[in-house]
Amino acid sequence: MRHFVNRYSFLVLALIFRTLLERTRQSPLGVMGLFTEPVLTTLFFVLAQRFFKLSISINMDLTLFFGVAFVLFAMFKRIIFSALPPLKRRQLALLRLSPVRPIDLIIVSGLSEAVIHLLLMMTFILVNSICTSSYHAEQIGFLFLVFACITIFTIATSLVLFQAATLIPQLSTVLRILVPRIFFWTSALFYSTYFLPSTIKRTLLVNPFLHGIELFRHYSSPSYSINSISLSYLTFASLLVTAAALYFYTLYEPKILKRIYFSR
Amino acid sequence: MVLGSLKSNNFAAGNNTIVRFSNAHFQSYASNSYSKVENFCLNLQICRGQSILLRPSTNSQEKALLNHFQGIPTLNVGSICINGTYGWPLGTLKVFSEYLTIHENIRVFRYTYGSSVDLEDIYSAALYRSRLGLPAGNVLFRSLPRHIKLALSIYICLKLDFDFYIMPSRWIGVSLTRASLKDSLKEFLPILFHLLEIRLREKAFILFTDKFLGYTITPTYSQPLPVL
């Protein structure tokens, strides 16, 4: 078992190394090219907030409020898009290496994005805490825990979507359009759940990604109030989605492999 | 499907079986359409030090076998027992990343396969490297000419020390129409196959072809297998 875990971790690390190096070399900006898109997305919303002078009566710096949410959402979107359409030509070539399975490619895409966005998030929080001198470093363990839960949830969701899109190719475009939009409006990116009416709130709280964003805000700025938001729910939902994704993957792997091969 | 063996590799085959196809009924697809199905049966045993020549009667049979080795299930009935490690089909270029250097590509392969062979052993220390005229390891893969890429693909796979190797001949340019590429490969192939011969004393080799550059092939078993 230990040998298997070691081998698998080496495989995943090698593929992450390959993916990140490829992306760095393909981009004209080099390493900075990895961060361009999430930085621009976050910057757009932060500047929009400044420009329109939006104000929400929350006990939190508004730049941090929007920044945290949009970095996490940028990661979510990138991971989902990496699984839809199922696999790109560049990724398919890796299936010729005998230890590599389709699930590894999804996990590797997700973890590569997670690494990039974690670095970005840490930089963002660090810069913000230097500027406002309001960051409480004792919560950093929780920040990592929430980030890990969000990453697991996102990769598991992308694995479910990957399977659906591979087995029913017509779904690929629909999912690509619908899923990010649904999560955009229901994940408290630009509002706080604290002030939502209870009827809407009850529905929105089903979304684990919303819990992740709100918890991340809370742990990066403890004065930010959260109500009915639970870390255990986020952890439970992440594990549940992961278990479901792995179960269905085990069931449908032969079909998925055939579909991937013949849709080329 | 016709079986044969390479004349140049008559090494002793012990009981050390690496691959065994027992009444394996494969499902292959006549074209890239998912619906057209063709079935064929294969009984085969490959031991260490043995080279097997497979002559698939159609391209789809070759594809089905290759796909099976790449994890795409094509088996309907029967069993396949694989008791060893194998790399990518020799000659394929797609496994290499164009944006990584040769050394970086090797590092990725080494960790992917969990190979304990040292990076230097794989690429730098070889007498063959100078004889093959391979470039330095820090050159980007995309900047290399195609025949050197092909030679590298074969060379690195051989050096990674797998238990058996698979080679579809069309992937190494035998059936390529570009004469210039064929000529370039002719310089590399004899040296590569010399290296391969050394490897094959303890490994196994499966070749999919009906013709081969510089090698005389004498089929020892030419009875066609029943097709379902």
Write a structural description:
The complex is a heterodimer of chains A (264) and B (228). Chain A has helices at 2-26, 32-51, 62-83, 89-92, 102-132, 140-167, 171-186, 198-204, 208-220, 231-262. Chain A is built from ten helices and no strands. The radius of gyration of chain A is 19 Å and the shape is globular. The relative contact order of chain A is 0.13. Chain A is mainly alpha-helical and 264 residues long. The two termini of chain A are 35 Å apart. In chain A, α3 packs parallel to α6 (140-167), α6 (140-167) runs antiparallel to α7 and α9 packs across α10. In chain A, 75% of the residues lie in helices and 0% in strands. In chain B, a hairpin with a 7-residue loop joins β2 and β3. Chain B is built from six helices and eight strands, in the order ββββαβααααβαββ. Chain B is globular and about 45 Å long. Mean pLDDT of chain B is 68; it is low at 4-14, 173-177 and 211-228. In chain B, the strands form two sheets. Chain B has a five-stranded mixed beta sheet with strand order 6-7-4-1-8, with no helix packed on it. Chain B has a three-stranded antiparallel beta sheet with strand order 3-2-5. Chain B is of the alpha/beta class and 228 residues long. Chains A and B meet through α1 and α10 of A and α2 of B.
